[in-house]
Amino acid sequence: MNTRPLRFFHRGQVVEVADLPPTTTVLQYLREHAGCTGTKEGCAEGDCGACTVIQGELDADGQLQLRNVNACTQFLPTLDGRALVTVEDLGGPERLNPPQQALVDCHGSQCGFCTPGFVMSLTACYEAHQAAGTRPTRQQLADALSGNLCRCTGYRPILDAAEQMFELPVQRLDRAPIAAALQSLARDEPLDYGHAGVRFHAPQSLPDLALLRETYPQATLLAGSTDVGLWVNKQFRQLGDIIYTGRVSALREIRADADGLWIGAAASLEDAWAALTAAVPRLRELWLRFASPPVRHAGTLGGNIANGSPIGDGAPALIALGADILLRRGDAPRRLKLQDFYLDYMKKDLQPGEFVEALHLPLPSADWQFSAHKIAKRHDSDISAVCAVLGVRLEAGVVKEARFAFGGMAAIVKRAAAAEAAVIGQPWTEATARAAAAALPQDFTPLTDMRASAAYRLRVAQNLFTKLWLETSGVAAAPVGVWLSTQEVPA
Q1: Mean per-residue pLDDT, 148-155
Q2: CATH number, domain 253-486
Q3: Among the CATH numbers 1.10.340.30, 1.10.150.120, 3.90.79.10, 3.20.20.450, which is that of 91-164?
Q4: b/e per residue, 304-338, with b = 16+ CB within 10 A?
């Protein structure tokens, strides 16, 4: 690859950058170099949404895709070949765009610090629904704004504005110049960007990525930057050379094959969870509560899995579905069960020069039933204390197979072998579910930390088996909250 500057579309033109460190964030570039100070820094870790911008790129069919992302965790070189839309690109004082005007009309801004981020998330939502010809419900609007925090208004007037923006005369972003610029940028050579002896490689083919990874096994492998960005922002780590996977189209592919569902390692969390939910509708609530839209648009499922965090929400779902992980080193592929990939806390079965190429899961048959739960202090955009995806395969009311996968209960995400053994071959009854709960202490000895005590983690995990039974047996779910809060788990 030939060294060249970064090139991306911003403020109506193609911008070139050649003199900034590769770990410069998009937010730093906007505020310190581009003079675009409408984008704010609140948390610098992708939680508050004050830094929300819209990123544009062409999808596999050449259509322009606009998605809101956090500018504080995205490194500037990841914008190469893409478009950046900020609050300065929207309507001005003389003519506000519909989200801006609706926020004014509904008194949706008080101190104003978070407002530009809300405007960008509302604009992304507005653009998506106008393009699809759909009208979101109030709950869908709340879900779309789950990555934006406001400490003044209480959200009600902001949601009122979200509904009202669709009542105003239609005013959309001018997509034609963005698409034209991206088509031109697509002809650029793959990026090999350097600054002060550090290189940022952005290969565009799988063989090039494999060669780079094998040649530079110590380089930092970067996917969505939703975690690696915090290494820089919060831990002040030096990353050294970086190999970015986000431009390898083969890694972003999601497809159904004869054996199940293939999800490329660089497929976004949003796209990957959409595919998983289509296969297993019970995962929908977990999808909506997995981080926030800006994080899911930037982050990748492969990155979430490769990270290996015991509180990552992707691994419990995939392990419960029986997924395999596909690894690659040079031309040599390797495949293993995802549950065997995790060895110990933050230790994976990953060799030097090897990387995650894809995840593959068999599509569950109709006799499999699943229940998915994320237990956290906040309903939206929070890290799990416990994440559980529980599945049973029934034949004539008898449990033939079981996969109970838990995150937050041990040093790694893993299955509950003793609880599974307690139900296999048994009639699927409430007593069987309670037997699984009673066996769970054989599988896990949770820790106490800032998110939950060990006793709470174990108790809530045990209670989820009764919830699994209630959900899969057709019993009304209304009493679940009472049972969880007032009844003891049987011995």
Answers
A1: 91
A2: 3.30.390.50
A3: 1.10.150.120
A4: bbbbbbbbbbbbbbbbbbbbbbbbbbeeeeeeeeb
